[in-house]
């Protein structure tokens, strides 16, 4: 038997987001998810939108007790821009939202759970999308910064870990390249502008945060990172992987962590006529806004090969430079669209952050093992759902993280996606990731066996295999 011991003050917990958990009660405004669901409910699995979801707005006290039961010492969720801000132009806040978030934060803190608060989890206010095109517009960049400053001022040091964006590349991919987020456009030039504007919004918010001198708080960003693995060692495949890495990872990592804009990226954009509008003042923000920590989300590896079939889209996407590739020897999760399972990617990510990004302090901000409700099965006679599959896979991933720590990774915690099965965008409740099942009929939270294991891990800081 081997014992894997993690650092003493390691953060253990889970991640979620406001819109995926809170429900619509007393929400000041709509986000694009409310709007899109109203316009096109058929785009959502079984037509379910984010109206009620886990109903955290009403149930946060009871839920914080459930967090304790599975051993969390920390938890990430997000503030909803469309809940906190009543009037985007004047910056008037919604007092009910202030009260709700304060109560929720206090409840976590008094129960020994460190809250980490994210400011944007794919949830553009509907009004700002309609009026200005969301992050297509620099006006919205500034409105985001006003909102961020309000949040810093109101909740300040109560939140020790502030996060500007979760997976900032995803709204670019979903909304402007591949049609899985509103506004469902397919436009490479707009995509690059939106990506740039989000990086700018992040940089400006980080600058404002530092001006406030909240001495006890830190600020960071959460990126979804996966190395690009090739079919084999042939040169054209390695080149394909280099492009995929540049466009999907370095495009956000370099400006946000190293404060550098990769020259090669600018060249690619120029070649395709998709160079964004920038000013030298904006570039100064981006190249000087220092973050304190990084969050990394990891689910599945990216595999690529050189293009074999000619690129036939009439707009720019990263796939101009590669094709996605399924590893015939890979291991796949039978419960999640056959996604590949590759725990060693965690080690590769950690070493990349260590060697190429100044070994910035980071945490595994999302790692999720998806199962559907049927494969998790019904609760046993003890009332607990047996999801040993999840625990076994989690162990494999954590062994790789442990190896990375031994190799000098500066990782300070692990958050699993997610706490209670929550609503996940167009997939709605199709995939379950939680420590607790959400019974959609009754709203009941049903414990899963994995939580018992996690509690042991969190308390002892170790596990045996
Ligand atoms: C991540 C998102 C999160 C959730 C999981 C399943 O990419 O950050 O909101 O939907 O996927």
UniProtKB/TrEMBL annotation:
- One GO MF term: beta-glucosidase activity
Keywords (alphabetical) are: Glycosidase, Hydrolase
What name does the UniProt record give this protein? 6-phospho-beta-glucosidase
SUPFAM superfamilies for the chain: (Trans)glycosidases
Task: Tell me its family.
Answer: Belongs to the glycosyl hydrolase 1 family.
What is this organism's lineage? Answer: Bacteria, Pseudomonadati, Pseudomonadota, Gammaproteobacteria, Vibrionales
Whether Amino-acid biosynthesis counts among this entry's keywords is: no
Highest taxon of the lineage: Bacteria
A cellular component term from Gene Ontology for this protein is: cytosol
What biological-process GO terms show up in the record?
A: carbohydrate catabolic process
- Give the organism, scientific name: Vibrio renipiscarius
């Amino acid at each position: 038997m081997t014992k894997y011991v993690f650092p003493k003050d390691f953060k253990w917990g889970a991640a979620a987001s406001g819109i995926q958990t809170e429900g619509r009660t007393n929400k000041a405004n709509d986000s694009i998810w409310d709007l899109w669901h109203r316009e096109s409910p058929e785009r959502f699995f079984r037509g379910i939108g984010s109206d009620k979801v886990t109903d955290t707005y009403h149930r946060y006290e009871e839920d914080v007790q459930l967090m304790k039961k599975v051993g969390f010492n920390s938890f990430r969720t997000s503030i909803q821009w469309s809940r906190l801000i009543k009037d985007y132009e004047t910056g008037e806040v919604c007092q009910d939202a202030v009260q709700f978030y304060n109560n929720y934060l206090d409840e976590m803190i008094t129960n020994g759970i460190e809250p980490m608060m994210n400011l944007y989890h794919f949830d553009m206010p509907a009004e700002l999308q309609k009026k200005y095109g969301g992050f297509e517009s620099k006006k919205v960049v500034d409105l985001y910064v006003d909102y961020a400053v309000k949040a810093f001022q109101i909740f300040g040091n109560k939140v020790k870990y502030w996060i500007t964006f979760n997976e900032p590349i995803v709204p670019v991919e979903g909304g402007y390249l591949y049609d899985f987020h509103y506004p469902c456009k397919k436009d490479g030039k707009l995509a690059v502008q939106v990506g740039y504007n989000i990086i700018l919004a992040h940089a400006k918010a980080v600058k404002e945060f530092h001006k406030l001198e909240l001495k006890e708080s830190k600020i960071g960003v959460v990126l979804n990172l996966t190395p690009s693995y090739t079919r084999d060692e042939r040169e054209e495949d390695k080149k394909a992987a280099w492009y995929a890495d540049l466009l999907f990872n370095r495009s956000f990592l370099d400006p946000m962590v190293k404060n550098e804009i990769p020259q090669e990226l600018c060249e690619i954009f120029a070649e395709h006529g998709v160079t964004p509008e920038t000013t030298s003042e904006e570039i100064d923000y981006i190249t000087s806004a220092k973050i304190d920590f990084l969050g990394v989300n990891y689910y599945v590896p990216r595999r690529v090969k050189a293009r074999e079939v000619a690129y036939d889209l009439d707009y720019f996407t990263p796939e101009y430079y590669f094709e996605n590739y399924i590893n015939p020897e890979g291991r796949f999760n039978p419960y999640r669209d056959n996604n590949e399972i590759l725990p060693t990617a965690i080690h590769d990510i950690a070493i990349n952050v260590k060697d190429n990004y100044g070994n910035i302090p980071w945490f595994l901000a999302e790692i999720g093992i998806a199962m559907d409700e049927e494969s998790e099965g019904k609760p046993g006679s003890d009332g607990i759902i047996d999801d040993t599959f999840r625990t076994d896979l989690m162990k494999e991933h954590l062994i790789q993280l442990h190896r990375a720590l031994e190799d000098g990774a500066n990782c300070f915690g692990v958050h699993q996606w997610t706490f209670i099965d929550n609503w996940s965008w167009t997939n709605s409740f199709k995939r379950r990731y939680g420590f607790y099942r959400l019974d959609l009929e009754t709203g009941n939270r049903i414990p899963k066996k994995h939580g018992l294991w996690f509690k042991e891990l969190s308390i002892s800081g170790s596990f045996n295999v």
